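Before going further, learn to read the protein records used in this course. Taken together, the tokens spell out the fold as the letters spell out the chain. A record is reproduced here so that you can trace the correspondence yourselves:

***
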Amino acid sequence: MSKKSGFVLLSVLSGVLFGGAFAGNKLYDFAIKPRQRADSTPDSSELVTRGRKWVRNHAERRDIYINSIDSLRLHASFIPGKENEHHYVVLIHGIWDSSEGMGIYAQEYEKKGWNMLLPDLRGFGQSEGDYVGYGNDDRYDIIEWIYWIIKRDPQARILLHGTSMGAATTLMVTGESLPENVKCAISDSSYTTVKEEFLDVYETLDPKVAIIPKWLALPLLRLEVKIRAGYDFYKIKPIEAVKNSTTPTLFLHGDADKFVKPSMCRELFDAAACKKEFCMTLGAKHIEGVWVDSKKYWKKIDEFLEHNNF
């Protein structure tokens, strides 16, 4: 090889490496670096905004803090139920949000008189953390919260109810060995695997972010995440977790969801080894079922809970 050819090859390789590193870093900042939700950010429904204010201003709300297994300080809002109530719901929010975003659900559970725990997932709200876990580490954090409840009330009967990334976290939790206090789970709009979800979302991104082909983008992002966050998102597979689940689970989704494909809900349902139920809300986009058809949404949940003696 001539010196000129070698120089050209070196220049090309350097360009590829530099460009790949730049693209990986840009994708990491977009997908993995937490972004706090501002109060000025509009919600998809006024009902969600009202729910946020309801949680924030609830007279009996208490701030609770625990430490994760890797020593992060985690926060949750706890709203007690009626006296001598042993039913608890853990409401798990989605990406780019906080526990306040689950207020629209908490308002309904308050009508039942239940105790409510609304955790901030790591990196969001008042919880520490510098990366988005997509359910990877979050599942262990939720298990820590479960044991916080049991320590408070050994007779606790616990329901997990998550939306979007919170739904995936819920399913990842059910794939672990859980105490008998965890009786049921609700997954609203979970993805099957993070890899598949990233591939779907990547095709919809602004060209300023999706600057390289997806066949190269995902491996670069995977490497960046391994280096900077210490986990492999290719291994985050709620669809594998549900194969190990013994927790009765209700799978919810909207048939107009463009963010997480509705077909993923059916795949999760089919794969689940636990007692299970399924409900698709017509006309609902991503996690919109709770307000697009509120009556159907809560009726299905009530039926599911009744079927499982909750």
Remarks:
- The chain is about 40% helix and 15% strand.
- The mean pLDDT is 92.
- The beta strands are 62-67, 73-79, 87-92, 115-119, 157-163, 182-188, 249-254, 276-281.
- The CA atoms of residues 149 and 176 lie 17 Å apart.
